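Private note to self, pasted from the team thread so I don't lose it. Backbone tokens:
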């Protein structure tokens, strides 16, 4: 036979369940109302970020895809007895494409124009200016670090 629970215990459980439900509901309401959304004035504008993404796709994405496809092409050539390719040359060629992709990543970021107009096709004239912007962006962080020491 089961023991009967006292009325007090059942009332406490009901209160506990009710308070938990309202507590979580109140947290969601408070978190939405208390956190003001701040607009950051510094950062990369959307049109510049889109321009960088397009440049990165072509200068880093394509060489990276080629670096991965070297393994597939090499496998097909070797398994069908078309030619004998040493594994070291497969790795060297794919590494070359991956390094080209890494250089393309940097080039895609640094060559993007920050003007509203797109600028030139290659954007080589923007590289020194963007390197200077990157250096200036890191200056406040290093100044704060030096002051704390």
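Design output:
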């Amino acid at each position: 036979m089961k023991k009967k629970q006292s009325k007090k215990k059942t009332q406490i459980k009901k209160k506990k369940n009710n308070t938990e439900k309202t507590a979580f509901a109140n947290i969601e309401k408070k978190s939405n109302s208390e956190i003001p959304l701040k607009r950051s004035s510094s950062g990369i504008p959307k049109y510049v970020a889109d321009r960088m993404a397009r440049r990165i796709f072509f200068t880093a994405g394509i060489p990276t895809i080629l670096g991965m496809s070297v393994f597939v092409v090499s496998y097909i050539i070797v398994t069908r007895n078309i030619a004998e390719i040493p594994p070291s040359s497969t790795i060297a060629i794919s590494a070359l494409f991956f390094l080209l992709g890494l250089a393309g990543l940097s080039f895609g970021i640094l060559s993007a124009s920050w003007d509203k107009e797109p600028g030139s096709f290659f954007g080589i004239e923007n590289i020194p200016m963007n390197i200077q912007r990157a250096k200036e962006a890191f200056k406040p962080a290093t100044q704060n670090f030096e002051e704390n020491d």
